[in-house]
Design goal:
mainly beta; hydrolase; globular; TAXi_C; six-stranded mixed β-barrel; four-stranded antiparallel β-sheet; 437 residues
Length: 437
């Protein structure tokens, strides 16, 4: 049976001129495509660049409002996602089952469970690709109630036949509900070799409704939880993953790496601790201060905090948020400092960005250097990471006020960012992400 399985996989990947590599390999890299990039199958050329950026910012603002919204004690006993349903910015290709069925799903460091839409569909949103059909996969199984994965749900839910059920309620009212299942996951690597991982836990969704759209077939959870893909593959990838995100206008894909391929090394690498806080989904860092030119602004929540205790971990690093968000009072200090250092008159902002300028007369040379001072590491931002090109000759400060702090993906562009869940550290290094393979 294994020989037949391998021959079949070789046949469907004939264009790659190779057979699948099993998960015992030490590392692999896959393509990561921004949902609005020209490389995305959902790219709409009729939508202007300004509209794309504005929509992305609005998604970030909506996402943040739910990240920091306290849960009510009366919430139903299901998996609660504090995010909205359509907030992910980057898509990755996955194949599920034997033989593999291909899907394009949101890769999200703010999600804890991977799920896709499945047949039979009781209630599904529209998606361009066919739904996953469990009956066509020889390796598909529904997990039993006593399984470790089912018990990691809070609380576990089971039917009369002792099969495990999952339900994800999103903060905007969207929902995914179905069977907590097991099947093989295949990742198509940039080397041309598919990597196959058996027995991956995921949600096979039979009811999925709300603010989902056809731009994704589900969610790949890369969050800091037991059910995330990263933790499930931990023995193979040693708890390591990394990404290198290119600017939206680039004609190459961003990269997402696992295992040995995810190791960030060489000159210029810096490391800072990752903190786990409740809920154990997000990756928290400790931001001590932000320098704007020669002015250093202490981040308020780090006052009188000199060791790794519960007060640390005051900012979330998030691949699914476009811009960086600060508490309102601190954001105002950042904005005022920018205004004092840029000898130009601001223009009216848009889409929640409050500080904007006309990009003329060598404006970019006037933008001050910005550095985020994390515990043990300094993240230097260039103009690309500081000022967001809104199109039409307008640049805006890519930061906004909110009720909490999030380090967004614009600040991470052209950085190789590595997560080591075993060592609980985040590494980063300035990199031309267009050259990553």
């Amino acid at each position: 049976m294994e020989i037949i399985h391998s021959l079949f996989l070789c046949f469907i990947t004939l264009s790659l001129l190779t057979c699948p590599i099993q998960s015992r390999s030490s590392g692999f890299t896959i393509n990561l495509v921004h949902r609005d990039s020209p490389l995305s199958p959902y790219h709409n050329s009729s939508v202007s660049y300004n509209e794309i950026i504005c929509n992305s910012i609005r998604r970030s603002m909506t996402r943040s409002s739910h990240i920091f919204t306290p849960k009510l004690a009366s919430s139903p006993p299901t998996i609660q996602s504090p995010l909205t349903a359509v907030t992910g910015e980057y898509l990755m290709k996955i194949s599920v089952g034997t033989p593999p069925q291909e899907f394009l799903a949101v890769a999200d460091t703010g999600s804890h469970l991977t799920w896709i839409q499945c047949k039979p569909c009781i209630e599904c949103y529209n998606q361009d690709s066919p739904l996953f059909d469990p009956e066509k996969s020889s390796t598909y199984k529904i997990q039993l109630c006593h399984s470790k994965a089912c018990q990691s749900l809070q609380p576990p839910s089971c039917d009369d036949e002792n099969f495990c059920k999952y339900k994800v309620n999103y903060a905007d009212g969207s929902l995914s509900k179905g069977d907590l299942s097991l099947d093989s996951f295949t990742f198509e690597s940039t080397s041309g070799n598919p990597f196959v991982f058996p027995n991956v836990s995921f949600g096979c969704g039979h009811r999925n409704h709300g603010n989902f759209d056809e731009s994704s077939d589900g969610i790949v959870g890369l969050g800091n939880s037991d059910l995330s893909i990263v933790n499930q593959l931990s023995e193979t990838i040693n708890g390591k993953f990394s990404y290198c995100m290119v600017p939206l206008s680039s004609n190459v894909s961003s990269k997402l790496s696992f295992g040995s391929d995810a190791f960030v090394s060489g000159s210029g690498v810096q490391r800072t601790p990752i903190f786990t806080k409740d809920p154990a989904i997000y990756y928290h860092l400790n931001l001590e201060s932000v320098s704007i030119g020669d002015t250093n602004l202490e981040f308020e929540s780090t006052k009188n905090t000199n060791k790794a205790n519960d007060e640390n971990g005051n900012i979330i690093i998030d691949s699914g948020s476009t811009i960086t968000l600060f508490p309102i009072e601190f954001y105002k200090k950042v904005e005022d400092e920018f205004k004092s250092k840029i000898p130009r008159k601001p223009i009216m902002g848009e889409s929640g960005l409050r500080l904007c300028y006309k990009n003329e007369d060598e404006f970019v040379k006037k933008v001050p250097n910005v550095t985020f001072h994390f515990t043990g590491a300094d993240w230097d931002l260039g103009v690309l990471n500081t000022m967001l090109d809104m199109g039409d000759g307008v640049l805006c400060l890519s930061m906004a006020p909110a009720t909490g702090a999030v380090f967004g993906n614009v600040q991470q562009l052209n950085y190789l960012v590595g997560y080591d869940l075993d060592a609980k550290t985040l590494s980063f290094k300035k990199t031309d992400c267009r050259l990553q393979s």
